Amino acid sequence: MPDKNVLNVLRKGIAEVIIEEEMLKLLETGRPLRLKQGFDPSRPDIHLGHVVGLRKLRQFQDLGHQVILIVGDWTAQIGDPSGESITRPMLTAEEVRSNAQTYMEQFFKVVDKEKTRVLWQSEWFGKFNLADVLQLTSKFTVAQMLAREDFNKRFTGGQPVTITELLYPLLQAYDSVVINADVEFGGTDQKFNCLMGRELQKIKGQTPQQVILMPLLVGTDGVHKMSKSLGNYIGITEIPADMFGKVMSIPDKLLLDYFELLVDLTEEEFAGIKSDLENDSINPMNLKKRLARTLVEQFHGEDAAALAESNFTRVFQDRKAPEEIETTFQFSDEKANIVEVMLSTGIVKSKGEARRLITQGGVQIDGVKITSETVSLKNGSILRAGKRNFVRLIDKDLIK
Questions:
Q1: Fewest Cβ atoms nearer than 10 Å: which of 63, 107, 219, 305?
Q2: Where in the sequence is the domain holding 18, given as residue range(s)?
Q3: What is the CATH number of the domain that holds 87?
């Protein structure tokens, strides 16, 4: 049997291993395994939901195994519903390349770049012709495709399922054949696609890959999986104050999942946190602060984490402005349109968003709520928009 450390990596924070007995035998061989991780650069940024799987990849790398990162520059242009009820929009090749570059820069904030091989699907699909497509599709039936839950729901519900979408699992499966993958990693919503890879490898005479499925991290709303499209995400490149604040906003019920899936804890430490929560012997806010500080430190460093925590305490507990305010607005006229000010600083994306904040009482200058768009500005005043956006107002005439 593998040692305790290997078993811990294989079983901790994993939803399912297909097939665990075979996976254990692979690990016992002692040879470096080819770990397949594919991603569709449909969006440029990575959030903590992605980090769950990336951390597990890093743990396997630390055991001596190699990650093969497949950039889905073809499948991204198709769009995989992955459990959603609608198809993602098809992207242009230019959009895919741009997203992929940003994604990989963030990917290697978690995964060891030196132990990772990056491949683009276009290296093999770019050579595909119609005969190759027909040969690939001949290996599977429509009934097999409709066994996928989201396809089946849409089909029986009278919603369209395009032939292009049916190709998606086949292309992902073919990736496994090309690299002769030993193990494929994915979220639980990727189970069907990963199993298709096993099936196609059998057909092609390869040893079928093992599949490691990771839990889907619930987002800040406490209901749906973390997703940029749902707005319930925590991005790993967000400024420390925003990352800290978003972690503090998660429901208490998510604390154990976040600690288990995103933080390195011993069994004893995790058991202690679980016991404290179950016995109501700790204020959940204190645990959230610990979690937020740890996560900010992972991606921004210890000093940034300490400052983010200090600012959170000042703003949300002491009702003061942060110690450091990065955004400034220089004015020359004391009378100004506050909507234009907020838009020019980038703290809102549109005039409509600015006006909604004003209507909801979410805009203040020096602690006084703004009810009119026309305001008087004073040098050194602090503009606050929403919960975490602060701007220092500076009179140009006083700048030396």
A1: 63
A2: 4-214
A3: 3.40.50.620
Closest alpha carbon to 55 in 86, 18, 12: 12
**What is the edge-to-edge ordering of all strands in the sheet holding 368-369?**
327-331, 389-395, 382-385, 363-365, 368-369
Whether residue 118 is found in the same domain as residue 28: yes
The CA angle 124-117-211, to the nearest 5 degrees, is 80
Residues 153 and 65 occupy one common structural domain:
yes
Give the whole-angstrom CA distance, residue 258 versus residue 246. Answer: 13
Distance spanning both ends of the chain, measured CA to CA: 71
Same domain, 297 and 355: no
Q: What is the mean pLDDT of residues 219-240?
A: 89
Cα Rg of the chain, angstroms = 25
Angstrom distance (rounded) from CA 330 to CA 332: 7
Say what the pLDDT of residue 43 is.
72
The pLDDT score that the predictor gives to residue 297 is: 94
Q: 209 and 129, same structural domain?
A: yes
The reported pTM is: 0.77
Beta bridge partners of 16: 213
Inter-CA distances, 139 with 87, 136, 204, Å: 24, 6, 10
- The answer to whether residue 103 is domain-embedded is yes
**Domain co-membership, 14 together with 82:** yes
Shared domain check, 305 and 347: no
- Contact call for residues 27 and 6 (beta carbons, < 8 A): yes
- Per residue in 76-128, pLDDT (tens digit) is 766 555 444 444 556 777 788 888 888 888 899 999 999 999 999 989 998 99
Residue 202 above 90 pLDDT? Answer: yes
Q: How far is Cα 102 from Cα 93, in angstroms, rounded to an integer?
A: 15
SS3 212: strand
Task: For residues 241-250, give the mean pLDDT.
Answer: 91
Six token digits for residue 241: 């104050």
Note the Cα 141 to chain centre separation in Å. 33
Both 332 and 292 in a single domain?
Answer: no
Q: Are residues 300 and 363 in the same domain?
A: no
